[in-house]
Design goal:
Oligomer: single chain
Largest sheet: 4 strands, antiparallel
Helix content: 25-40%
Radius of gyration: 13 Å
Order of helices and strands: HHEEEEH
Structural class: alpha+beta
Number of helices: 3
Distance between the termini: 27 Å
Number of domains: 1
Strand content: 25-35%
Length: 95
């Protein structure tokens, strides 16, 4: 099952984000939004960071993926993915 398929067909509640952070599959899962249900996520493993967004009509989708290696640290991947989410939302994909 892919990451997208494992998410519910709606934005995530705070307790669901906490559960994802406890999962062994991910090292970090954070919402881009400051409050309310999470419609935009940054998900990190040892090897990559993904920006994931929820739209009511399309569900969850991966907006950006940054591979982590000797030249790209996690913080750089998180920043790039956050910028991708903000750009995605600013391009008229806001719900």
């Amino acid at each position: 099952m892919s990451l997208i398929e494992s998410l519910p067909a709606r934005p995530l509640e705070p307790q669901e984000l906490t559960s994802l952070n406890r999962a062994d599959a991910f090292e970090l899962v954070v919402a881009v939004e400051d409050d309310g249900p999470a419609r935009s996520l940054l998900v990190a493993t040892e090897g990559w960071v993904k920006a994931i967004a929820h739209e009511d009509d399309a569900g969850w989708s991966v907006v950006e993926t940054v591979a982590l290696d000797d030249e790209t640290e996690r913080i750089d991947g998180l920043q790039a993915c956050e910028e991708a989410i903000l750009s995605f939302r600013d391009d008229g994909n806001e719900e």
